[in-house]
Amino acid sequence: MDLLRGERPATVERPDPPIEDAGRGGDAGWERWRAWLLPAVPALLALAMGVWGAARLPLWRDEAITAEIARRSVPDILWCARHIDAVHAAYYLFMHGVIQVFGASEFALRIPSIAAFAAMAAGIAVLGRKIMSGPVGLIAGLICAGAPFASHYAHEARSYSLVAALTVWLTVLFVDLAERGSRRRYAAYGAGIALLGLVHLFALLILPAHLVTLLLTRRTRTMLRPWSAAAGGAVVAVSPLMALAVTQRNALDWLTRPGWLDVRFLVETFTGPPIVAYLLGAAIAVGLITARSRGPISPQALAVPWLLLPATVLLLVSQFHPFYTYRYVIGSLPAMALLAAAGLVRLPYRTWLAPLVVMAVLLQPLHVEQRRPEKWWDNLRGAAQIVERESRPGDAIVFITADRRSIAEAYPDEFHGLRDVTMRRTPAEAGNFGGEEYDPAEIGRRLTSAGTNRVWLLEGPWRMPSLVPQDRAKVDALQRNYRQASVWRVTGITLTLYQR
How far is CA 85 from the centre of its chain? Predict the structure, then answer.
């Protein structure tokens, strides 16, 4: 059709989408929002719980070791791993980067653990929604965020909170493999398991739990071959670390053979006070009976092996050689939350909020208690402040045992100006926690030299009756040549000032 000058062609109006299609688009958008909002709620609660009190608590001995080693250069960290604590080398390297960015304050050292705590709560929410429903995921995430056991390790500059977060998200990926497996996803799972093993070797006990889940689930048995290849590749990747860790197993000599009291303590650690334990136990029982899956893997087949196997294996192996302590199985805590959530969701519409509120009220005193500095493992900050306040330029200091030297490394400003008269090589040079000290004769000579008039002795809350020769030489020289001027005691530390 010809058009006159200035005339515009008619436009064809597009019809509006059918009302039904528009509704579906809106529902899909709302579902996407819910997918983000659901894990965000427990993650934000966990973040708040992690930040609460994190800067108030002093470092304790293990955290002081983290601070001291992470301050070293990368070659020095790797040099240390050849001699001791190789199982934590990856974590120390990671924390070395954290210190470069955020510094080495108490709060900065705990930032990764706090973030991992939030990631764990978000991860179990995603997992609950994936295998059951959104409410189950939300309840499980809130239980994790409110668990004193989890928030305690959010306040530690150690790897355990990271272990829990990695375990949860690898289990999310594991369930995803059952729904839509691909080579890329299996490769990601294998790489994640290898990373988990590098962070903590005992965390690899999630692998037998995942294997049992596959065997219990008929619809996923076809996954056995690709899953075994991914898991086997991860184990091979971390096998050099395993071999090195075997040569350093004396680092766990402080552990004892566990018994039934340890099992009971583990249950109490996971659940909290008895009333909360009864509530969670009842919810778990209901969940075991009534939980139904929305995918190929049932909540029971996933969560029961995850909750029970890691602790059971460690407890049984530890009857022959002690390897068990409760924090090594922190990665199983989200499984308990998942089963409890599966039970609580069976309550009438949203009345599951009531038991959650009751548990929060019952757990509140425990949360307050574990955030009090005087209830922390050690008050290293308090000891450092005493030294800073009472010391004089030129004072000497000695440590019993040598590895308590990490306290001075963790709080270097407070110990600045003190002479470490018994140290021959620094911990970084020696590749350990306590450095290398002079022989007993040289220690005695240096402590009795004319230039030393005041000596600080830093030791634990009590002195072992049998001391290594270097430590015995320190005590003998101080008792023969000095008088005890003052004594200070803080949690975990005794400070004694000796004067001529």
Answer: 16
Q: Where are the beta strands (DSSP E) in 409-482?
A: 419-420, 423-425, 436-437, 454-459
Phi, psi of 60 (to 5 degrees): -110, 180
Cis peptide preceding 247, ω within 30 of 0? no
Rounded distance, CA 297 to CA 96, Å? 39
3-state DSSP call for residue 393?
A: coil
pLDDT at residue 6, as a whole number: 42
Q: Put the strands of the sheet holding 419-420 in their side by side order.
A: 419-420, 396-400, 454-459, 493-499, 483-490
The CA distance from 487 to 457, in Å, is 9
Whole-prediction pTM: 0.90
* Closest to 108 measured CA to CA, from 164, 165, 70: 70
Cα 366 to the center of its chain, rounded Å:
19
Confidence of residue 26 (pLDDT cuts 50, 70, 90): low
Q: Are 477 and 443 in contact (CB under 8 A)?
A: yes
Q: Which residue has the tokens 């140290």?
A: 423
Rounded CA separation 39/142 (Å): 9
Which stretch of DSSP H or E encloses residue 135? helix 134-145
CA angle centred on 160, ends 57 and 43, rounded to 5°: 80
Cβ density class 413-444: b for 16+ within 10 Å, e for less:
ebbeebbbbbbeebbbebbbbbbebbebeebb
Alpha carbons 125 and 42: distance in angstroms, whole number? 8
- What CA–CA distances, in Å, run from 413 to 383, 426, 476, 482? 13, 17, 29, 27
Q: What is the dihedral of CA 143, 144, 146, 148, to 10 degrees?
A: 130
Angstrom distance (rounded) from CA 127 to CA 297: 11
**pLDDT confidence band for 31 (50 / 70 / 90):** low
**CA distance linking residue 341 with residue 328, whole number of Å:** 24
Distance (Å, whole) CA 41 – CA 126: 11
